[in-house]
Amino acid sequence: MLKSTLDRIVRSHRNVTSSCSISISSISGVPKEKVDCVVIGAGVVGLAVARELALKGREVLVLDSAPTFGTSTSSRNSEVIHAGIYYPTHSLKAKFCVRGRYLLYKYCSEHNIPHKQIGKLIVATGSSEIPNLHNLMHRGIQNGVDGLVMMEGSEAMRMEPELACLKALLSPLSGIVDTHSLMLSLVGEAENHGTTFSYNTTVIGGHIQQNHLCLHVSGTKTLENWNRKFPLQPEMILIPKLVVNSAGLSAPALAKRFDGLRTEHIPPSRLARGCYFTLSNTTICPFRHLIYPLPEDGGLGVHVTLDLNGQVKFGPDVEWIDGVDDVSSFLNKFDYSVCTNRKELFYPEIRKYYPNLKDGSLEPGYAGIRPKLSGPRQSPVDFQIQGEDVHGITGLVNLFGIESPGLTSSMGIAEHVATRFFRG
To answer: In this structure, are residues 165 and 153 in contact, taking their beta carbons and an 8 Å threshold?
Structure first.
């Protein structure tokens, strides 16, 4: 099934095969095909990259182990459009958040994607937090975030009567977006410009020959049925001119299986699960803005998120978890369960800024996992976007640690990748 599917795909890419003459006879009996661009991973970043490359006239093939797009981190986040306040000045997170936010609002407006610029209040609930709030404002201004306003608590509480705080930083450029509608639009536009999607298709590794990456590909069903008694073998080898490893949670694990990519170029990864709880037993939304506490170790704190239907969500928290083996990560076999007992940790955190939260009003929502490059009590690590200038392999771009603000940054990252690495 995989071979027939990919045979059909590569027939549409025949016009790009003549310039790549890589010998891969070392893996005998495995079908081999040449293609132009391969994007590994159909999350929001991978979709944005695929669309951008297709708009530039590239022949793009997107591979994902899931039966459809956006089944991992992209469908398990807060759907917030960030302004660009939190991230160190001159970092990739700051750069792509600010640029990506502009591109995302523009795209949503032009393509009728449900979204709303509702603004955010970052609040200090204790006097010791006020200096950090001023630091955030200063950093946001340095990052090019317009419209930031420092408010006294009384002013913020007039805006939000259910809020309790001493001071607040208003970020009017923050908002929310329907992530599924966004991804559906990116898929459609990419397909309209010739991109092909192959779901239930897993990249299990690769090898370097003549300084090009050859991808080892297997059907997801084959991988699920693998008995682990014998070495995992590919069902097909793809020979792309250009590869974007946008595999999200499994991007580092996959890169480790690219034989010939030096291990010093693959950062250690850490996983942080975050749970969301929804507000039940109320017909009136208590807030009109996003409400955020000061950032905490590993995240932005248990905050208030509103979706476009008016539902109130609290989260995510930070729970450092162990990883899974490579194959399980390729198949997205992570634990996304929400432990009901964790809500007892939420109540005191939320009541710091929402003291009227009633007992029994939190219901389990969903969980997501952040692909982080730093662990507990370590300073946050920036996005890593690695091209040939870093690892020396022609046509390979690795995207590591694309956690928050990955959604907001997606179109900025795509613009950067298509412009810097794939010219011609």
So the answer is: yes
| Whole-number CA gyration radius for the chain | 22
49-60 pLDDT per residue, tens: 999 999 999 999
Instruction: Write down the H helix ranges in 245-323.
Output: 251-256
Q: Which domain range does residue 139 map to?
A: 119-174+269-372
Residue in the structure block whose two tokens are 């040449």: 34
Q: Give the separation between CA 201 and CA 258, rounded to whole angstroms.
A: 17
- Please check whether residues 200 and 280 belong to one and the same domain: no
Location of structure tokens 């694990």: 253
**Is residue 104 in some structural domain?**
no
Residues 276 and 164 in one domain: yes
Residue where the block lists tokens 């970092």? 91
Cα–Cα distance measured from residue 91 to residue 380, given in angstroms and rounded to the nearest whole number: 11
* CA–CA gap between residue 197 and residue 50 (Å, rounded): 10
Flag whether the pTM goes above 0.90.
Answer: yes
Please give the distance of CA 51 from its chain centroid, rounded to a whole number.
Answer: 16
CA distances from 416 to 204, 246, 385, 390, 412 (A): 26, 14, 10, 16, 6
Quote the CA–CA distance of 15 and 19 in Å, as a whole number.
10
Q: How many CB atoms lie within 10 A of CB 383?
A: 22
Q: Provide the CA 103 distance to its chain's centre, in angstroms.
A: 16
The separation between the first and the last C-alpha atoms of the chain, rounded to the nearest angstrom, is 33
Are 321 and 335 in contact by the 8 Å Cβ rule? The answer is yes
Give the number of C-alpha atoms closer than 13 A to the C-alpha of residue 295, restricted to the C-beta side.
16
Question: Which structure tokens are listed for 99?
Answer: 């640029």
Calculated CA dihedral for residues 136, 384, 197, 396, nearest 10 degrees: 160
Q: Which residue has the tokens 């899974």?
A: 324
> Of the candidates 52, 36, 33, 35, which has an alpha carbon nearest to the alpha carbon of residue 44?
52
* Cα–Cα distance measured from residue 304 to residue 315, given in angstroms and rounded to the nearest whole number: 7
pLDDT band for 23, please (50, 70, 90 cuts): very low
CB count, 10 Å around CB of 265? 16
pLDDT per residue as tens digits for the range 338-350: 999 999 999 999 9
The one-character DSSP state at 283 is: S
Average pLDDT of the residues of the chain: 92
Are 40 and 69 part of one and the same domain? yes
